[in-house]
Amino acid sequence: MLNKIFVILANIIYSLFKLLPTQNKLTMISRQSNKNTLDFNLIDEEIKKEKLGIKVKILCHKLDGGAKAKLSVKIRYIFHCFNQMYNIATSKVVLLDSYCILISILKHKKSLKVIQMWHSMGTMKKFGYQIIGLKEGSSAKLAEQMKMHKNYDFVFASSEAYAQNLADGFGCSVEKVRIYPLPRVDLLVSESYKNEIRKKIEGIYPNLMEKKNIVYCPTFRKNEEEMQKALEKLINSVNYEKYNLIIKLHPLSKITINNDRVIKDEMFSTFDMLFVADFVISDYSCVIYEAALLDIPLFFYAFDLPKYLENRGLAIDYQKELPGIISKDISEILKSIEDNTYNYEKLKEFKNKYIKKQKDCTKDIVNFINELITGIQKETKSKELVKI
Length: 388
What we know:
- The chain is α/β, with parallel strands linked by helices.
- It is 41% helix and 13% strand.
- The chain folds into 2 domains: 2-186 and 358-374, CDP-glycerol glycerophosphotransferase, N-terminal domain (Rossmann fold), CATH 3.40.50.11820; 190-354, Rossmann fold (3-Layer(aba) Sandwich), CATH 3.40.50.12580.
- The protein has a 6-stranded parallel beta sheet with strand order 2-1-3-4-5-6, sandwiched between helices.
């Protein structure tokens, strides 16, 4: 009942904002961070570089704690929602990288176009409508009341191989999917950017230049007890005379690491750390697609695979698709790293299947947005409707 009242009140307030004139404006909204995201910044910079005359507004705000957040946090978020309403109502295009409650529940102007540019490079975990009723998913009732992932006009995907899973997760038709890989792809294939970030990291951690670097970047689990034990096994199994171990936990993780032999970095993002990685160990994290673009050997420490499949589920054929050893035994993974017999051909096939276009990604997205705002179409090879 409270959810229904919230939706009605929000639409009443929003109707006043809709009286304001529409501008040639792009609003980008994220719940992933409290600061501008990398992809949003790249799009903003490209619009300015092209001098397109598009006004850009970036709104990034996390609701830390969710429904259990402190009252002061909730009040700040309410004011942020008013800011969202104003900018959505006065924009021609809204670009999202995550679920936005107001986009889903509000009745918008017919002129507004909404693009969902999901924050993951490729598919891995099931999400949204794929996990309704599961332990890590929403209830069917709540999803219906909050009109979860509704009102999208377009959904961006990195390739056709990812399209159907995205459509299923958002509960939309695959015809809405367009093939536009994330802007960050441009940085992953830029030698100058790689060298710039590598120098910054090595300036803080000079010992990274002395040995091979293993980066461990697991996905987040709500219950981290088993994760803690698995991490300790990894830490105790690495040969530190030959390798550096860099641990990049999920920002929401509460795991503490008290070991001087490892690098538990909090200065750089996982994305940044890929530029100094010689090997990446992960599990169900979509960071593997970014690592694949950098041709970094991938290994999968799946110590809780049966449980994860039960609680969340995977949208990829884990055993068949992944380009590297999958094991619950960390010693088997480390032995494979030591043996240096990695199958780079399978890594290349994986990369090319799931990330179709690997240059000019930001420019193509900006061209698409500009067409929506101006109504003037340009010839572009990336403007594709998914055919499945």
